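Subject: Predicted fold for Nucleoside diphosphate kinase, 203 residues

User T.R. writes:
Posting the sequence so we have a shared reference for the thread.
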Amino acid sequence: VSKWTPLCVASPPERNSASLNPHCSPARVNFRTALAAFRPQFRLFSRNSASRCRLRASSSAESGIFLPHLVASMEDVEETYIMVKPDGIQRGLVGEIISRFEKKGFKLIGLKMFQCPKELAEEHYKDLSAKSFFPNLIEYITSGPVVCMAWEGVGVVASARKLIGKTDPLQAEPGTIRGGLAVQTGRNIVHGSDSPENGKREI
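User M.O. replies:
I've generated the structure tokens; pasting them so everyone works from the same file.
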């Protein structure tokens, strides 16, 4: 950048802003006033389900801003369960995974690191109990600590699945977590809920 343009702010009434800064003009927006209009939007993702589904009429009236698409989208806020598996922790990938979800715009609402007992692992993967790889899967999940996370956002379940990538890292798209960071199906770093219902159950 060869030249910085000074930021214009409202000057006190007794001063002439144009004389102090040639880049400013009376037509410029008062930034404090503009930002104040967005204050009612700061808590859109409150844990209170009622506040997540509506914006208070009084706030909308005060700000003079109406975003019908945003109000409608609040009805689609979901929660999903994401688990970083033992190999992800061993390789120091927890921060990388969290960063990818945050950059997507989702909100981390819960996190816990613990050693998963065998009974809990078997319950978690009970739908795979008939598979030949089930014993190896349980041994893998219980081989070290896991990081369990709850994420919240509009369409977070489907988006999380896309961020994670296919089960087999070799078939996962480049740029996904598994496609970019994993090699083997049996060591694919992370688990994500496959439906909103399972997300609630797993959380």
